[in-house]
């Protein structure tokens, strides 16, 4: 891929010129393809003067925080700090059921935790004789740039958790956005050239508020655990069936209802999992994915047998619009 490899060389030069021989950069990473590609570019350009921060918000997927840490720090050699704030997030989500309030709480708490981490890293950097942190990395893509200029619809709130404007002012940080001229497929091509593991390069998008908007109703640690386990089985079976790349986004949602079931000669009264899978080009409209029946059978059997507290599995056959991709 000639265009992309010349892009890498030019971009590394541009970053080095911008940041200078002593400047430091900070940026949040999530384990998604955009923030990872941006982080690897920074690492290649300026090494450990790029500081990545992963905030564990308590609503990431099963083992996700540990996996991301392993890939980014151990395999890709990125200078990474993990801020485990799961108790703070889950504490603030207690009793909250309104989807937009969940988003606000998670967005605000994210900014707060990230800011505190940035100040700590800045202090350490200055003590060790390196300069203050001067730059903030964002993995903004070209469609995000266009959208923030031209579109003031519901998605203005979608990216609201990325709002780190306060930090820019407080610490007088300048923005650095190496992906702002690229589309998603170009970022993926770049990711492959940068030797980022394939399953990360092709990962489905995952919303900032994570499993909190996939546990309908109150988000408690035990509900998050059920949703996590069901989702893990679902994605595992989709991958085994070779369907993961055909699907644009898939996840399991935990519904806020109970239904009657039977186990042995006992009646049960347990929770319901809904499976969502969509195909889409731009995430503005989407079709539900025609999941093969045998795959659905395996998924449903496994979830009901392996996830305690669930006795019913449903498949979502709604398109967007009028439905949305997420349940909340
Ligand atoms: P909807 O549900 O609006 O989702 O059809 C469209 C795409 O946006 C993602 N999404 C979010 N991403 N924060 C995010 O970072 C959010 O609050 C949020 N809500 C939805 C969703 O996963 C899908 O890819």
Could you provide a short overview of the structure?
The protein is of the alpha/beta class. The protein is 45% helix and 19% strand. It is built from twelve helices and nine strands.
Please characterize this protein's 3D structure.
This protein has 328 residues and is an alpha/beta fold. The chain has helices at residues 2-19, 33-46, 64-75, 86-93, 99-127, 142-150, 155-158, 165-170, 184-193, 198-201, 221-240, 293-306; strands at residues 24-29, 50-56, 80-84, 133-137, 174-176, 249-263, 266-279, 287-288, 310-315. The strands form two sheets. The protein has a five-stranded parallel beta sheet with strand order 3-2-1-4-5, sandwiched between helices. Strands 6, 7, 8 and 9 form a four-stranded mixed beta sheet that branches. The longest helix has 29 residues, at 99-127. It is globular and about 70 Å long. Mean pLDDT is 93; it is low at 151-161. The site of xanthosine-5'-monophosphate has 12 residues, from loops.
